[in-house]
């Protein structure tokens, strides 16, 4: 039963990701096509091997399946609350700078979409322990870190620089800043 719920949540993540990729994020002219396609391939590997794992891997421990289901739920909540908070965003490696969003999940993480994806990919990778999934999860982590840094360099070189520097001091890139909670 738990694995069925986890599979359902994972499929909701996949649908959300695909919807976001084609209908929410725009592919900016500055995005290297090869990079965008390699990202899509790594995501496809995660999706295919995770669905395969849910359908054919039987040696998953029950307590860990609960943890994965919770991580998938958190991933969905972060993703959809970021969608509601942000109006639209450019795909990674854009050279365009819009308004800086600092509310909702953007008040916890500077890159909540990447956080939501990483939660899903790493939960699936640990759950099913496939070499292909480990390689793709490592690549996707690298991609998100590079993307986040590139996006931040662009913002820091724009008229939003001062505002963004203050935001960086108070909000962690992928993890909430505990110092902020103590205040």
What key phrases describe this protein's structure?
mainly alpha, 183 residues, two-stranded parallel sheet, globular
Task: Give me a quick take on this structure.
This protein is mainly α and 183 residues long.
Explain this structure.
This protein is mostly helical and 183 residues long. It has one domain (2-31, 62-119, 141-182). The chain is built from seven helices and two strands, in the order H-E-H-H-E-H-H-H-H. Strands 1-2 form a two-stranded parallel sheet. Helix 2 crosses helix 4 (112-128) and helix 3 packs antiparallel against helix 4 (112-128). The relative contact order is 0.15.
Please state how the strands of the largest beta sheet are arranged side by side.
Answer: 1-2
Report on the biggest sheet: 2 strands, parallel
Overall pLDDT confidence? 87
What is the 3D form? globular
Helical residue percent? Answer: over 70%
* Contiguous helical run count: 7
Strand content: under 5%
Q: How big is the Rg?
A: 17 Å
- Structural class given helices, strands, pairing? mainly alpha
- Which residues sit in consecutive blocks of at least 5 with pLDDT less than 50? none
User: Care to count the β-strands?
Assistant: 2
The CA-CA distance between the termini, in Å, is 42 Å
Order of helices and strands: HEHHEHHHH
Total domain count: 1
């Amino acid at each position: 039963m738990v694995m069925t719920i986890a599979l359902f949540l994972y499929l909701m993540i996949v649908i959300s990701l695909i919807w976001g990729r084609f209908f929410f994020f725009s592919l900016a002219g500055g995005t290297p096509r090869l990079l965008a396609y390699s990202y899509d391939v790594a995501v496809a590997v995660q999706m295919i091997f995770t669905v395969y794992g849910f359908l054919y891997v039987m040696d998953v421990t029950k307590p860990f399946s609960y943890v994965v289901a919770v991580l998938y739920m958190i991933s969905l909540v972060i993703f959809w609350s970021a969608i509601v908070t942000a109006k639209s965003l450019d795909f990674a490696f854009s050279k365009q700078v819009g308004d800086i969003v600092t509310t909702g999940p953007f008040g916890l993480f500077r890159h909540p979409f990447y956080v939501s994806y990483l939660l899903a990919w790493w939960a699936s990778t640990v759950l099913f322990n496939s070499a292909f999934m480990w390689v793709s999860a490592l690549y996707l982590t690298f991609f998100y870190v590079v993307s986040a840094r590139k996006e931040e360099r662009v913002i820091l070189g724009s008229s939003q620089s001062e505002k963004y520097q203050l935001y960086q001091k108070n909000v962690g890139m992928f993890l909430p800043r505990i110092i902020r909670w103590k205040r």
